[in-house]
Amino acid sequence: MKHRFVSCILLLPLTAAAEMKPQEKPHFTDAPSSEEINQAYRKSSLRDPMKTLEKIPGEDPTKVNQPVNLLEQSDIICFSGVATLVPKRAILTIPAKYKDCLKLKPGSRIVGWADFYALNRGWITTVEVSRIQAEGNKALAKEISERITKSTNLVVATFMGGPISVLPLKQPEANAETAKATP
Fold it and tell me: How far separated are the first and last CA of the chain, in Å rounded?
């Protein structure tokens, strides 16, 4: 038994060596010369799409669509010396007892929405809306609308956890045309 075991151990490297293929020598290529690189650059610069780009007639959009003031686009929610900015139309309901919270009080520290909401989740309720609902193309569910109107908390619309403006519901164009047709 020992004899077989020893012979197997001795023959094992021989069989492994027989199964191994001879290694191929690696194929090396020469690195491109500086002149070859310059020639490739010249060829690519001839095909530059920016040189053939047509100028669009009209006013420069960067000058027409200037950004507006951040505070003009935002509502402020302030409570206990901490404040945050949310987009206009993100606040869906404002109970009378929270009207004073929509003014920036002197000395308040401005923080991001997530930090502010974590500190004030007792009196702020969020309603997650889809992008289609935020654009005004789809109404909120009836039960959510009822819950918003009955809420005694400040209700803020959110999309993926962050506050978002909710545009008024758009009326279908077909209804608008029939309304114009009938005087």
Answer: 110
Between the alpha carbon of residue 182 and those of residues 49, 170, 174, 177, the distances in Å are: 54, 20, 13, 9
| DSSP category for residue 23 | P
Residue pLDDT, tens place only, 14-69: 555 556 666 777 777 788 889 999 999 988 888 877 778 888 788 877 787 777 88
User: Both tokens of residue 150?
Assistant: 């009955």
| Tokens found for residue 109 | 């520290």
Residue 21 corresponds to which amino acid? K
**Per-residue pLDDT tens for 89-125?**
999 999 999 999 999 999 999 999 999 999 999 999 9
Q: Do the Cβ atoms of 93 and 150 come closer than 8 Å?
A: no
Question: CA distances (Å), 154 to each of 16, 24, 57, 78, 92, in order?
Answer: 76, 74, 47, 12, 8
Taking the whole predicted model, whether its pTM rises above 0.70 is answered as no
For residue 56 the two structure tokens come to 């669009």
E strands along 36-148, which residues?
74-79, 82-87, 91-93, 109-110, 124-128
Write out the two tokens for 47: 């095909």
Q: 79 with 103: CB under 8 angstroms?
A: no
